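Researcher: We are triaging several targets before committing to wet-lab work. For this one, the compound of interest is zinc ion. I'm pasting the protein sequence and the ligand SMILES. What I need is the predicted three-dimensional arrangement of the protein with the ligand bound, expressed as structure tokens, so it can go straight into our comparison scripts without reformatting.
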Amino acid sequence: MEIIFLGTGGGRINLINQTRATGGFIIFGSKNIHVDPGPGALVHMRKLGLDPLKTNMIIVTHSHIDHISDAGALIEGMSRYGLDRKGILIGGDDSLEGATDGQSISKYHLTRVEKIVNAKPGEEFDFEEGKFIFTKAIHDSFPAFGFILEMDGKKIGYTGDTEYYEGMTDVFDGCDLLILNVMKPIPDRYHGHLTAEDASKLIGRVQPKLVLITHLGMKMIRYPAEKKAAEIEEETGVKTIAAIDGMRISSDQF
Ligand SMILES: [Zn+2]
């Protein structure tokens, strides 16, 4: 299994600046799973020589534009230029039904996939080679979620965009790899995202084999993120890497 980061940027300023790209990441294994395809996902896939026709699943953890914008284009790739009904789309009420400000994937694109999964925290979705357990996320008024993916003998936890919540360590207990959206190096008055302090608390208790921090906001990028990752590693004793655009991580590493 391999994970490739198309984009590692987060937050509204980075979204427009594109200091870091915003295309999400892809888990390549028995199934190829594209997670949170924001602006540039398709372009960065092509730049890295990756073929959107080989995507098997697309997962949108909430409908903020930096997680959903390229989903339609990538569904056209997954469904062989839109000619077939192919692949699995996983989203919440907001991205599938427009429950939040109508920011959903278009009705046309919803007809191009073979299966749609409406993810609810606490529920599971089994597929032939593995399963998803959808996890709670608290993020604005969005019905956001994260997940634990069990596939190819590994357990990968992804928080999605969320603030820290009571019980979060139990949710991600037993994960080999944690991918955390850590937008901020220090807390501020805006909630809805993990800070580095929250990440340390989670990592210290879960003790995964490896942590990748991504969805980095401008303050985190300037800190810089590599320094913050080293601080988290020092505090928790867990190998922590600040992801960079185009980074590839092999499952041998976790
Ligand atoms: Zn968001």
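Researcher: Any quick observations?
Model: The first strand starts at residue 2 and ends at 5.
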